[in-house]
Amino acid sequence: MKSLIVNKKYDGKKLNKFLLDNLNGLTYGMFCNALRKKDIKINGKRTNKDIQVFDGDEIQVYISDELLEKNNIKLEIIYEDENILVVNKPAGIEVTGENSLTSLIHKEILYKNVENVFLPMPCHRIDRNTTGLVLFAKNEVSLNILLEKFKNHEIEKHYHALVYGIPNVEYQKLTAYLFKDNKKAMVYISDIPKKGYVKIVTSFRVIEKYDNNTSLLDIEIETGKTHQIRAHLAYLGYPIIGDGKYGNNSINKKFCKKTQMLCSYSLKFNFVTDSGILDYLNGKIIVLNK
């Protein structure tokens, strides 16, 4: 339970405005859910309405600290203009869904007194525990263009992966086939076509080789399938360190890593078809400098 006192700045303001500005980790969805459950008290009385609050009011919010801490994430904007937004996603949060990167961005916008605005929407996804660049569209025209560009492979994505093992080639481009098992939330790789498998293309370049039998790879995927990089590298014998699903648990423990060491660090716009209002982005590279 959190207890807050309304100050003069919020005298006469709506309850949601006060709470979302002053309670770290609270999202609009969580606020609405708390109202429905009457988990918010004003001066000792439960309320299910987004009413006005006044200077000196005591607000009690019955939401677990664990849930609030989970959403207490500061957004790191890498690039922004009138049409797109690129955010550095931390590990441990989904791109979409409740309490996601997208919902956090929406919260930031909705409670800066911005009304009748198109809420940025993601144009692609990366795994929950993969870090790095996620591209959002800030208007419907840009969203439609960028979704088509990703579909046509006109946006080049690069990842850094710290893997166990050292490849015996400096660069390799590999074609394989991937099957997604929705029941097990796993994917499987095959060198040959099989029923239910889809084609994937993964390229890697060795950036650094280390004495502890690890190496840093630059990964490019022409096909962005679920868990493609993680599963394909593990299949090749180079599991990503920290990957609990496709990696090696004893290796993960050795390096004290609980999430995969995989980061989306670069986006390049390689437009070959009409790009409309986004033509200015053609050839632009957005890089995460970490």
What does this structure look like?
- By secondary structure, this protein is an alpha+beta fold.
- The chain has three domains: 2-70, Roll (Structural Genomics Hypothetical 15.5 Kd Protein In mrcA-pckA Intergenic Region, Chain A); 77-154 and 270-287, Pseudouridine synthase (2-Layer Sandwich), CATH 3.30.2350.10; 157-265, Pseudouridine synthase (2-Layer Sandwich), CATH 3.30.2350.10.
- 21% of the residues lie in helices and 31% in strands.
- The chain contains seven helices and 15 strands.
- Strands 5, 6, 7, 8, 9, 10, 11, 12, 13, 14 and 15 form an eleven-stranded mixed β-sheet that branches. Strands 1-4-2-3 form a four-stranded antiparallel β-sheet, with no helix packed on it.
- It is globular, with a radius of gyration of 23 Å.
- The chain starts with a strand and ends with a strand.
- The model has no long low-confidence stretch (mean pLDDT 92).
Superfamily at the CATH H level of the largest domain?
Pseudouridine synthase
Helix content: 10-25%
CATH C-level category of the largest domain? Alpha Beta
Succession of helices and strands? EHHEEEHEEHEEHEEEEEHHEE
Residue fraction in strands: 25-35%
Architecture blueprint of SSEs:
Blueprint: E1 2-5, H1 15-22, H2 28-36, E2 40-42, E3 45-47, E4 58-61, H3 65-70, E5 77-80, E6 84-89, H4 101-110, E7 121-122, E8 131-137, H5 140-151, E9 155-164, E10 171-181, E11 186-190, E12 198-209, E13 214-221, H6 228-236, H7 249-254, E14 262-269, E15 285-287
Parallel strand pairs: 8-14
Antiparallel strand pairs: 1-4, 2-3, 2-4, 5-6, 6-8, 7-8, 9-13, 9-14, 10-11, 10-12, 12-13, 14-15
